Amino acid sequence: MFGYVVPDKPNMFIKDYTVYKAFYCGLCKSIGKKCGQLMRFTTNYDVTFLAVFMHAVRDRQVEFADETCILNPIKKKSIVKHNELMSAIVDTNTILAHYKLVDDICDEHSAKAKFVDKAVLNRHYKRAKANLPKVDEVVAEGYERLRTMEKNNQAGADIVADAFAEIMKGISIELAGDNYNSYVGDVMYNVGKWVYCADALDDIDDDFKGGKYNVFLADYSYVDKATFLKDKSEELQLLFMSCYDAINKAFDNLNIAKYEGVITNVLWYGLLAKTKELLRSETKCKKIRI
Question: Domains in the chain, start-ordered, CATH in brackets?
């Protein structure tokens, strides 16, 4: 995952921020508990949102605890305690991280990605695959579709982003279980589509300079990011806002009680703020701190 699905802290109630941060730290702790300390580097905001959203969809009340962190062994912080659903989220995160590294190896022949996957991640991936074979199948098929389209220099963000969107929808089907419905799928499908487009737009300048595939470069004579944002302003606005509107239309049809404030902030305010940043920034987006 990429780290674009974030809360809008200035518009977040303190109580909701506390819950969100507890989920983030709880996910990090759960990754360490299940996969070892090195794997905690895979903790990210997108999977944190997935954890909050899936606990809400399944109406799971989490337990909180005050614990220290390896990065701050003195001060205790509130965390969400490890549970069965969080364990499945960790496995999902491991599978996503594995296929992201495989994609980097295939696209860039990255020696670093190959080393990390083989030395650190692979053994945890094998266990995650055994625990969630359907999730692994969905992610593998989605990345294979993406690689095929990238090799063909496929144009059309709607077409290419569909592959990653289907990955997120497929994951939600498995994690939500009996609580899955079409609105849950629509939220995660369009979050996936939005994330893919956000990452492509954020990376467009680096991809152009590195001669890498980028869906926004496939049918455009690129000069620089400022020119691209100006030339494609209306198209980009329509693309991102159609995802945003679809996400929130589906979310409005969900009867969610738990962690509703956290999810509303991320989907209503966080995505909108990040969209505005993406559409105006000539440099890469700054990563927020939680």
Answer: 9-280 (1.10.600.10)
Name the region of 75 (left: φ>0; alpha: ψ -120 to 50; beta: rest): beta
Please return the burial class of 288, using the count of CB atoms within 10 Å of its CB with bins 0-12, 13-18 and 19+. middle
Which region, left, alpha or beta, applies to residue 3 given φ > 0 means left and ψ of -120 to 50 means alpha? left
**Rounded Cα gap, residues 132 and 88, in angstroms:** 8
Burial group, residue 84, by CB count within 10 angstroms (0-12, 13-18, 19+): exposed
- Token pair for 239: 């693309």
Looking at residue 106, what is its pLDDT?
Answer: 61
pLDDT, mean over the chain = 91
User: Per the confidence metrics, is the pTM higher than 0.85?
Assistant: yes
Q: Distance (Å, rounded) from C-alpha 126 to C-alpha 11?
A: 40
Report how far residue 224's alpha carbon sits from residue 217's, in angstroms, rounded to the nearest whole number. 11
